[in-house]
Sequence to fold (995 residues):
Amino acid sequence: MTDSVEIRRGVYHDSVTLMQVSQQVRTAPGVHDALIGMGTELNLGLMREVGFQVPEEAGPNDLVIALRGEDEDALAAGQDKLVAVLAELHERSRATGSTTEVAPRTIGSAARRAPGGIALISTPGQYAVLDALDAVNAGLSVMLFSDNVPLADEVALKDAAAAKDVLVMGPDCGTAVVGGAALGFANVVRPGRIGLVAASGTGAQQVMTLLDLAGEGISHCLGLGGRDLSSDVGGRSARQALKALAADEATEHVVIVSKPAAAEVVTELEQLAAELGVPVSWATLGRGLPDLTAAVEQTLTAVGAQAPTWPSWGPTEPRPSSAPSAGDALRGLYCGGTLADEAMILAEEALGPISSNIPLQGAPQVSGHDTLTGHVVIDFGDDELTQGRAHPMIDPSLRLERIRQQGEDPTCGVLLLDLVLGHGAHQDPAGELAEAVRAAREAAANRGGDLPVVVALVGTESDPQGLQDCARVLSTAGAHVFTSNAEAVRAALSHLAAPAETASTPTSTPSSILETGRTDR
Amino acid sequence: MSTTEQPLRGLLTRDPSVVAAGAGIFGDALRQQAVPVTDVEWRPPMDGTSEALARVLADPRLAEANAEALRRITAAEAELVRIAPASEVLGLKRGEFLHSGPPLTWERASGPMRGALIGAMLFEGLASTPEEAEEKLAGPDISLAPCHSRGAVGPMAGVISPSMWVFELRDPVHGNVSHCSLNEGLGKVLRYGAYSEEVITRLQWMRDVLGPVLADAVERHGPVDIRAYLPQMLQMGDEGHNRNRSATLMFLRDLLPHIVSQTDRDPADIAEVCRFVGANDHFALNLVMPACKLAMAAAKDIPGSSVVVTMARNGTDFGIQLAGTGDEWFTAPANTPEGLFLGSYGPEDANPDIGDSAITETAGMGGFVMAAAPAIVRLVGGDVDFALTTTRTMYEITLGEHPSLQVPILEFRGAPIAIDATAVARTGVLPQINTGMAGRVAGTGQVGAGLVTPPAEVFVDALQALADRAPAAG
Fold:
């Protein structure tokens, strides 16, 4: 085995592109590993962790190429592959303009060329606030996808935005739909009368897709970032979003989708909505509160529409009452943090505390890298598991590997998964997921067991991946597929050999949604 | 709550258009939806600038301060009002010399700077040999100060001594005054560090004949509108830094009747003045520079502004000043230009970057409008595409476009004007400077011409100083 580490100055590519480049270079003959990235502390750490000798002088403005191969020939093959992949990228960029045309280097510059509109910022977190300030100063509203933005910066940024009468959606905002344009991870939903204000990415996607399945459309979905409804940020963006939707002719009703929110912020928004005269319903996750599906059903009633039977696919036969050699543990492997939260809230009623890398208050914290034992729900989209790699909705490999492992684990009683479709997500997520599901189920069968698999499929027929197609692929692999995450969770619970209680009886009835706050975020 | 009718500036009613910075997949997803997307060619900011940038960009004064700077720079005018000895108009006393760039001591002076100072000592009669001049220059009786500290500018070594005649330009809009020496031509000349007898003889002739004749001509003509030359230069294929042919001839055209009508003078002197000015393609550089200085002087001392008002080099250090940081210099070792060399000179003969002439780039001329002067690219070793790309790139680090300095080949787009230090740090794009190259060894003179950029560190330091002056966050 031999290593090479090279530093290139004056070359920059974004992290997703470089991950794709790394993946392609790994396919070169004899190459065992390729870590190609900008020399950020994080990337350099990853390289050193796996044993590469990276020179001290490498900095965030340098492209660092770390290759490991069987021998010198393998390294040369890796280099050749890299040259080819970079050349292809270069060709693609040249094809888009004349040789002397210069792309804008800053958002401010781009805004000067084409004024108005939205800035979609997914630059690394430590720089993102600079880009966001630039956008705000240029009079653009911002969807700030980047995370790791300090709280104080978020507050300052949102104050600056309010002064300029522009909206900052984020930081850590994954989903928005503005004027029909799906930004970040977002589903293709029909246009309509319901506006969303969302401090939760996959939560918003669940609400939007269910409304779409019920025949209702969305006017706009304005993301806020997960912290906006906390006491610290105080609903700064939510207030602006609510006012804008109240003034919007297309919007008749507003749904506020949120992870656990601060009570005083909720009260304040209720008061603001009353002043603005816009009817508001809440889809806020929390113990003792309606799940997202129930909240959507309440919203539908509020606008005078009917909730349909939420589509599902898969085994129609009722499950045998006693599974021959099934284990007894719930294993939820999620990409969407809010969906994982909802799963834990519903499951703990039946199973007691659920271990997680994002545990509910009072539940055990485990690492997503640990071997799973007992009832566990893991969020693969959490920072812990996205360090140095793309979100699992883009790069599902880590979760797929975990799914396969569960087939070999006799303690795994049921596998609960989500699959979120839409723009920004993987192009063929169902195919790869179905393969992993099939492998897991085969492994279980080989050891004489049976592994039920339940999937919450969040999407619409208009999504680039197509809801029906994905559902069919997954159900063919043996998964039971639900469009409602809450229904999927209940179905998963019904598969467990000895549920402590039926899902319908809450174990506790907290009066405040604050009590559902996580232990350590 | 807002001046616009719709909340959020009409965000929810307008057809969506998106500027995307970061991961490419999100822009691609929008294109698939037929949403117009502009991708930003994003890079991390310069090392060590993130925190200062955050402070400066969050400074509530920034936008208005920079808008004010841009207004003043583009509103500035420049008239040549008189030509007179530096002792008169700058109050320079015997033994006082001005030089280019940030402050400098004799000990740190480079070869060409030393050569020019030696020449000035000889010219002023303060020494009779170069050795004697050097000895005195190292002593306590000679004082050095940057041209910029007196509102003046000097090309290359930029040495101004009391007996040298200087142009005096005035900005009637803002009331500022600036000065620059008279241009000596190319080759063995004082500003490139040459001090041979030929050099001193020419300086004496300039003092005794050229200065007085031109001064009379200007007096007879009345104020000469130098600012009006600048847009015309761009239309005529000059960029005002390394090519000044058109402005030189325009200047001569304006003054010629008032030169030849000086019948009380020796006709041979009159003829020599006309020949000297007309034959020196760079003569107008010394008019363009103070005109640019006046534009930038108008933007000095605007609290909170990140506009670069000075870029200057003394052959040792490169220095910049910002509108928001007063007279403070931010300096780092000057880079050495790259380009083409005269005769048998090569890169090893070139001195690090020198001269106040980067005031032209600071004011949107020179390297910033290289696209307007395609002929320049051969002098500086590039091709026409390079010139176009360079000018287009400079828009990425400037606040605006000059309403009257227009680049014909870019559809008469205004020149990129008002360098924004925050944009430089965020993009890593450094200002492009077209420049001459002086010989490293004192007395050599010019060895070539080419391209150079400031050292990045000066922007890092300047931003930190601006951040230190920003109001506390919150």
Summary: Chain B touches chain A through 65 residues (CB under 8 Å). Chain B is about 35% helix and 20% strand. The mean pLDDT of chain B is 95. The longest strand of chain B covers residues 398-407.
